[in-house]
Design brief:
Elements: E1 5-21, E2 24-39, E3 59-73, H1 75-84, H2 93-100, H3 107-118, H4 135-155, H5 167-179, H6 184-205, H7 226-230, H8 234-250, H9 259-262, H10 275-296, H11 303-322, H12 326-336, H13 339-342, H14 345-349, H15 353-365, H16 373-382, H17 395-411, H18 422-434, E4 438-439, E5 443-445, H19 446-465, H20 475-482, H21 489-502, H22 510-525, E6 648-655, E7 663-669, H23 674-684, E8 695-702, E9 705-708, H24 715-718, E10 726-731
Parallel strand pairs: 6-10
Antiparallel strand pairs: 1-2, 2-3, 3-5, 4-5, 6-7, 8-9, 8-10
Helix pairs in contact: 1-3, 2-4, 2-19, 3-5, 5-6, 8-10, 8-11, 10-11, 10-12, 11-12, 11-15, 18-19
């Protein structure tokens, strides 16, 4: 008899160590596949159940294959690996390289290597590519280069946008005309070139100014009209905010988020760096300011009217949650937690209990507990789900949520997910700070890029999900939104004091007033707090309007969106009960208190989840990425901010008297002494590193206490590990 065979596979992986070649180091993994071969028909005759044969009648075979993944290499080797990665079974290499190469090379450099060195068959026969000895291998090489170019154009076409000349795109077009004439790719490049040129022409002519990141002309700015705002339905406002967020998030170029690129935005020559990320920042801050201006913009409002506006914004935030728009949701929550709004105790007393509970649940999404674990888990859970998964501890809110969600489902339109981009920027900045760029021998650390790609891939996945939204712009609302005059922080605080002073504090009995104060305090500050924080006016230091006055975004707890646009306003979320109002506008306060806006300051023990790996006894200290003296780090323990971990940690250093508000994150190990850390800090702040002897390093213990380090002290062992790892570099007297 002839029995058709069935196969079942069991796969195991084994570490095969490293392979070292000239200019490259590879990780080797052995993939062992066990194939059980069995006859479908006749299995029962031999005593098997179903299609399974008894063990004694099973034929077992094993296949072993080798997977090579480049770990570190020269730029030439990394580019060459683009052509051989599939042969080495490293199937994700091309995507990882294209998403991260801008951190260590330019588009021009990579394209020249790919086309001139490996794509020019006449000059490649000198041994650079050993297998080019036959016509067949030339055909294979052309196909490999075509595959890489096709992936490049599909995944990262923005890399070729170089107005006005588009040199790289023209070079690519010339190569295609000579080597792949009349191909689909040639047509694609020509169309891309026309698209770039048309967009530039529209921009010059003034037709391309529809981006939500463009603020309105000063002539059209006006104080918010409460009646006009109230005329917009809650779900309409949420949908329009989501529409604007989606349009901006889909345009975010993922490599703009890389820590090595985003952390350089403070330099004068980089004022136009990462424009797609800056656009999302502007939109987030605009939403936050709009919330504040609608609540405080009209002094004549009665307490109940102002409370109704707060309630409306909470409802809008809830609608954003239903739409899975975590960006505007967080912007609204941040505004409501700002000092100027939070201190309106009498107004908050008039907000209904159900809505306060709804607000509390929405606020819990962005709790800083365990490095914002709640928001991270929720984002991953709903990243590709069709609809939001709404749970509420309050029955009435649960009914309303389910009713609204059912209406969305009845429409039959799936939803995407708009994330809070700050979470990803935090992780990428931390990765860039913790891992070195180069390893021993000056090789590019590609393991670092693989780790970064894990974050970039999440951004791309969410961008893809945003294509599911089907939202139509409402020009009436958009015009109203863009025409709002935003209050500065000083203006909003002044108005807040005036509004609260004018409020009739006798509308409630002392008993109910005390109860409401306790409830509001508990809502904002936690269950252990029963009295509101003391009031302090905003600092008189310059607001965050000047370019470069921003924190480095490199530490977990200060990784807020940079406020380096031409904006002079932003709200400030409240901080801890012990120190409620250490603040300024985004990037204008260096204290460990709350930061304005998009990255709220978390607790001192916050750590980036991407680094929460189990410790291993063998894990040694991690060197600073600029040292170039280590091999690729394989340690499972990565340094984090505010925690000494595996002989290393991350500290934040600001310059005393020079951009006090600018923090730079620095990786230190248990071997680093004052001169090493000082030199590294000067380099980070773009200052002359030779002036080490002119500075002293100081750790900020509290507002009135500092720890001054002796000249040759070991920073790691000498620092106070029970307070924030915030340092000041100060010129010696």
């Amino acid at each position: 008899f002839f029995f058709p065979f069935s196969f079942s596979r069991q796969t195991t992986f084994q570490d095969g160590g490293e392979e070292v070649e000239e200019g490259a180091v590879y990780n080797v993994t052995l993939k062992k596949v066990q194939i059980q071969q069995a006859a479908n028909k006749g299995a029962r005759w031999l005593g098997g159940e179903g299609d399974q044969l008894p063990p004694e009648h099973t034929v077992r075979q094993y296949e072993t294959s080798k997977i090579r993944a480049i770990k570190a290499g020269t730029l030439e080797k990394l580019v060459e690996n683009l052509l051989t990665a599939f042969g080495d079974a490293d199937f994700s290499y091309i995507s990882i390289f294209l998403s991260t190469y801008r951190a260590f090379a330019s588009t021009k450099a990579v394209l020249e290597l790919l086309l001139d060195r490996f794509g020019n068959l006449e000059t490649s026969s000198n041994g650079e590519v050993a297998h080019l000895n036959s016509f067949e291998s030339e055909v294979v090489l052309r196909a490999e280069i075509a595959s890489v170019l096709r992936a490049w154009l599909d995944q990262c076409s923005e890399d070729f946008r170089e107005p006005p000349d588009h040199t790289c795109l023209l070079k690519l077009l010339d190569y295609l005309k000579n080597n792949m004439p009349n191909s689909d790719m040639e047509s694609k490049v020509q169309n891309l070139l026309k698209q770039f040129q048309n967009q530039e022409a529209e921009t010059v002519d003034g037709f391309c100014s529809t981006s939500s990141s463009d603020l309105v002309d000063g002539e059209e700015l006006e104080i918010s009209n409460p009646e006009e705002f109230s005329s917009f339905q809650d779900h309409v406002v949420a949908e329009q905010l989501t529409y604007m967020d989606v349009m901006l998030f889909k345009k975010v170029v993922p490599y703009h988020c890389l820590g090595s690129i985003w952390s350089q935005r403070d330099k004068k020559e980089n004022k136009n760096l990462a424009p797609t990320v800056r656009a999302t920042i502007t939109q987030f801050n605009t939403v936050t300011k709009c919330v504040v201006s609608t609540i405080l913009g009209t002094k004549e409002l009665k307490i109940q009217q102002r409370a109704k506006i707060i309630e409306k914004w909470i409802h809008i935030a809830h609608e954003c949650r239903i739409l899975k728009n975590f960006s505007s949701l967080r912007a609204i929550i941040s505004a409501l937690q700002s000092n100027s709004i939070y201190r309106l105790k009498t107004t908050w007393m008039c907000v209904s209990k159900d809505i306060l509970l709804m607000y509390e649940e929405l606020s819990e999404i962005f709790s800083d507990h365990d490095n914002y674990l709640t928001s991270r888990e929720l984002l991953m859970k709903e990243a590709t789900s069709k609809f939001a998964n709404l749970d509420s501890s309050e029955k009435e809110n649960q009914k309303k949520s389910q009713k609204r969600l059912q209406l969305q489902k009845n429409k039959g339109v799936m939803q995407g997910t708009v994330p809070y981009l700050g979470t990803f920027l935090t992780d990428l900045i931390m990765l860039d700070t913790a891992l070195q760029d180069y390893v021993e021998g000056g090789l590019i650390n590609f393991e670092k890029r693989r780790r970064e790609f894990e974050v970039i891939a999440q951004i791309k996945l969410l961008q893809s999900s945003c294509n599911s939204y089907c939202l139509i712009p409402d020009q009436k609302f958009i015009q109203w939104f863009r025409s709002q005059r935003h209050l500065s922080e000083e203006e909003s605080y002044k108005l807040s004091r005036e509004v609260e002073a004018a409020a009739d504090t006798n509308i409630l009995s002392p008993k109910s007033q005390k109860s409401m104060v306790k409830r509001i305090s508990t809502l904002f500050l936690g269950t252990d707090v029963i009295t509101p924080p003391k009031e302090h006016p905003p600092k008189s230091s310059p607001l965050g309007g000047s370019s470069g006055e921003s924190t480095d975004s490199a530490s977990v707890s200060s990784c807020e969106f940079n406020h380096s646009e031409t904006e002079d306003v932003c709200v400030t979320p409240i901080s801890s009960p012990e120190d409620p109002l250490k603040k300024g506008s985004i990037g204008s306060d260096k204290g460990s208190g709350s930061k304005c806006s998009i990255f709220d300051k978390g607790s001192g023990s916050d750590k980036c989840s991407i680094f929460d790996k189990a410790s291993s006894p063998d894990s040694g200290p991690v060197s600073d990425k600029s040292s170039g003296s280590m091999s690729c780090s394989t340690s499972k323990v990565l340094p984090v901010y505010n925690r000494q971990n595996g002989g290393a940690c991350i500290i934040r250093v600001s310059m005393d008297g020079v951009n006090d508000s600018v923090y730079k994150s620095i990786l230190i190990t248990n071997q680093d002494r004052i001169p090493d850390v000082t030199q590294r800090a000067l380099l980070k702040h773009n200052l002359e590193p030779d002036a080490v002897e002119d500075y002293e390093l100081v750790q900020v213990i509290s507002e009135d206490k500092e720890l001054v380090f002796p000249r040759d002290a070991n920073v790691f062992y000498g620092m106070n590990s029970h307070v924030n790892f915030d340092f000041i570099l100060r010129k010696k007297a």
